[in-house]
Amino acid sequence: MARARISLFPLAGALLLPGMQLPLHIFESRYRALIRDAMARDRRIGMIQPRGSGAKPPLFDVGCVGHISEFEALEDGRFNIILNGLARFRVLRELDVTTAFRQVEAEVEDSGTRADDILAAIERAALEQESRRFAEAQGYIVDWSAVSRLDDAALVNGIAQIAPFDPAAKQILLEANTLSERAERTIQLMQFFGRTDGDGGVTMQ
């Protein structure tokens, strides 16, 4: 763990994981200021989910630092960016700042490759099977031959980012400490959300 000062983009339902990408359209003035500041420094911002609503809602404890790998400035002052996930961080304290965007002191994980970022064959098979069931129930069209070529981390983290889970469920996936744990949580969430999609129209049974 290394301590760092991180400028935040709180956004509910937007999950960024190490090694993954997240496209964002930036239109609020405070977050346009955030992006301008990041581009002038190290191109890094912290994605984190708020726990509630309002001008300054409480935040979850864990987020992910991202590097702005692609940047497009629009004529009206908005930005389109793509973030590359670098490492998770845990908030230690929020800083008293004059900037329009929030900043925290945080512990940042080592971004090196983890030895446990590989699934057992039975875990991979279970995840692919449940993914097929979930996609069919939701009416998604998926190129399964392309999915089968993904490495374990790309598969697990890709599902975690794009699946239509609520913010609390997304946070549960972000906070999983191993790839195996995230895969298991993803399977459980697909089973739960597949049975009850909010309108009662999807069933996995």
Describe this structure in words.
Helix 2 runs parallel beside helix 6, helix 4 runs parallel beside helix 6 and helix 5 runs antiparallel to helix 6. Residues 200-205 have low confidence and may be disordered. 35% of the residues lie in helices and 26% in strands. Strands 1-3-4-5-6 form a 5-stranded mixed barrel. It has helices at residues 29-40, 121-138, 144-148, 152-162, 167-174, 179-195, and strands spanning 2-10, 21-26, 44-48, 62-73, 79-94, 103-108. It is an alpha+beta fold and 205 residues long. It contains 6 helices and 6 strands, in the order ββαββββααααα.
Q: Roughly how much helix do the residues carry, as a percent range?
A: 25-40%
Count the E strands. Answer: 6
Give the structural class: alpha+beta
Shape, principal axes of CA atoms: globular
Determine the strand fraction and express it as a percent band.
25-35%
Task: Tell me about the largest β-sheet.
Answer: 5 strands, mixed, barrel
Q: In sequence order, what are the helices and strands, one letter per element? A: EEHEEEEHHHHH
**Largest beta sheet: what is the strand line-up?**
1-3-4-5-6
- Overall average pLDDT: 91
Low-confidence stretches: 200-205
Number of H- or I-type helical stretches: 6
**End-to-end C-alpha gap:** 43 Å
Radius of gyration: 18 Å
